[in-house]
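Hi L., both proteins are below.
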Amino acid sequence: MKFIIYLTLLIVPGSFTLASGRQDSASIRNKVRDSLSARADYYVLMATFTSAIKPADAVKSYKKALTTAPVRNELWEADVRTEIGKLLFKLKKDEAIAQFIKAESLYKKQSNLRGRADALDMLAKIHEKKGMLTEAQKQYTDLYKVHMEAGDAVFAGNVASHLSDVFFRKKNYDAAFSYAAMAKNSYERVCRRDSLGAIYLKIATIKRIQNKPKLAEYYVINKALPYSSSADDFKGRIRSFVFLGNMYKDQKSYSQAKWFYIQANTQSRAINDTSGIINSLLNLSVVKALIGNPVLAKRDLAEARALAKGTPYSGLTEAFNDRYPTLLRRLGLKDLAAVTMKKSADPGDLPVQKLLIHDQTISPSSTLVLSD
């Protein structure tokens, strides 16, 4: 009995000592981890404060946060790498691509759709800017799918609409139509009427270029205009009227073209859209001259010039002068016909919203009708 007691006294204290040692060791490790985690938080905080004014320093701080402590979790790392990628993109560094690729992979593992969308959007934009269309197309397509999976049908439609624009500029009209149809399907899921009006007008533009005027007319009159009207989208209605006016003008149906330009002018005045008023007046001056009403044509042109003078839209009338010299000579405005468009009045300086109307308004093919 005494032996057992002595043995117990010998063993138990030792056991207490070992257990205490293990606890102290775990405590130390926890304290070290907490200390490193706090340091990582400090670096992230410093990066946040300096990102706007010193992006390069912010990148260094974020990278220190990644290497200072064991990564807390993959979402935290993905968020940090996304911020690094955005700063590197701002600094025009190619390393941004690697950061976004890694972030997108981590988000995908964690089924984080919002994070994936953010990373894919940046990757697609970078590759598009670099002219790497194949890579950009793949990432935009993945982005479309992610938005649809997340239930963001409007964002998905916007991505498809952008791809349609990309291929339209490349004159790949079949691909442009396919992506426009994808955008239409996305917008229809949530009945986004203003977006549906815009995408149907885009589809009509493609069909017009593919020499399918009847189909183009159908999409505008039966789809684009009704959706724009039901959404109270005045800009959309103006674009549709301008589109139809241009199409009829190209077909030499000048009376019909005039009617649609008058509608565009009326709508533009209703919302006090100066650029829309100027454009519609310029269009009206052309068709009135073609119909044989030079006095009315000169009146519309004079009003357009008066509205544009001393405004950011003066480039519209100067571009008109440059593009329609024959018309101006026939109207007895030889001084305007001799003036070439000044670089300082480049229409490219105008807002994109205005240029969409301007591009459809002054058509090079229309000059041929008036040539001597």
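That was the first. Here is the second:
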Amino acid sequence: MSNIREQLLAKTAGIKATDARKPDATRRAARTETAPGMAGALAAAQLRVQELEANGTPSELPVSELTPNPWQPRRVFNEAKLAELAESIREVGLMQPIVARRVGDSYQIVAGERRWRAHKMLGAEMIRAVMIECTDQDMAVLALVENVSRDDLTDYEISASIRRSEQEFPDRKRMAEALGMSRAGLYRYFAFESLPDFIRKSLDLQPTLLGGHAAQDVVATLKKTGEDGARAASEIWPDVVNGDLPQGKYAASIAMLAAKRRSNGDIGSARSIEKFFSGREQAGNITRDIGSFTVKIKTAMLTDEQEREIREVIGRLFSTQPKSH
């Protein structure tokens, strides 16, 4: 199999992009701290969609019979922005049809999931579409590289999509070629698989906590530091979650604490950390070690009534003033 990106670019060399979306600079700056450049693959994917659209068949499809691209990396969509898009479609109509392919008795979205979701918001029964023929491999590549330039897609979400797409490629070398990245860049995404369970569970809720470079550094550090590093990682992780420790310093902090433990002969087994949540978001944690018992609660998660109740409990258990002798 030859380089897939080169094939796509060669087939579509004469087509001018009509809907290339420039990523918002502010959103890109706020993204997770790493993501290998995929601009070439993105350009090839956009050209590929345009080529397929040019040879496709205009149609009108039932909204209820469409399903998202199964390789779509994004799992959470901004409801406010979807509502804005829905209102725009309600006022002026759908300016650009979605792109879809037939799979069995139903249809899969190749491009345009946000437009489809906006139609669902409006309660629309039908949506304009261009029907194309598209392979599973095309679907995997298009879904991933198209979304990398969108707002707020994290390295962790990209890594999950890459893992889902892996079976569509004969090996990781061909996969890297298709996605427009080096093999080193691809393997950086696979580093998330080697993170401890407690980190990946946090990333499921807050995928912006670690970028690809930070994840790779953590995995390398844990391999070097063994059990001491694993304990240190568990103890320090709440500081990353709470925003007290930048993700880029997490691996170095693990190494420092593990080294300190080894030099002091401290096995660190007396410390425990328990997280608690409000809905899906972590509200705080309880840390207990040899010298202290600490409860941390995010101010934004605490109501005035809850604060009053907590203070009452503390007041019943302890005096707010030292007793005189």
